[in-house]
Amino acid sequence: MTQNSIVLVVSVSIINGDEVLIIKENKPFAINKWNFPSGRIEYKEDILEAACREVKEETGFDVKLTGTTGVYNFISSSNDQVILFHFTGEITGGSLKIEEDVIIDSKWIMVSELMKFDNNELREPSVIRQIVDRLVNQNIYSISVFNEQLCK
């Protein structure tokens, strides 16, 4: 099998107290899989703007990005090389309204509860487990490692 492409993706853990919002996707290669709100960075789009846009499209929430757990590089189930930029964020507006054609469910859970999910329930289990480990251990880095542009 050959590599299809290199895909740039943003992902956001929306934190509310001790809980995080997860979504259940209904996308090709991710049917009935739990994930953080995420999606591809569009051509000429700023990484931070992409993260805020994806959250808004998939959840209805406006967010302020507060930190990053890092950058992850992996081969996806569709055989793309994915470079994923993961952020933490907090809600600043909007209301929960999932994008029904690609998101079939959402829920707030304790961050540590994600470690109890079976691998077949998660979009990219090894990556999600790395992110959750960093969230639980508070290995969150300043958003200033990216540019200073803020979400509108």
UniProtKB/TrEMBL annotation:
Family: Belongs to the Nudix hydrolase family.
Keyword Iron recorded: no
PROSITE patterns found in the cross-reference section: NUDIX, NUDIX_BOX
Alphabetical keyword list: Hydrolase
Top-level taxonomic group: Bacteria
Signal peptide: none
Domain Nudix hydrolase per the UniProt entry, residue ranges: 5-132
Organism: Neobacillus rhizosphaerae
InterPro entries, A to Z: Nudix_hydrolase, NUDIX_hydrolase-like_dom_sf, NUDIX_hydrolase_CS, NUDIX_hydrolase_dom
Name of the featured protein: Nudix hydrolase domain-containing protein
Pfam families referenced in this protein's UniProt entry, alphabetically: NUDIX
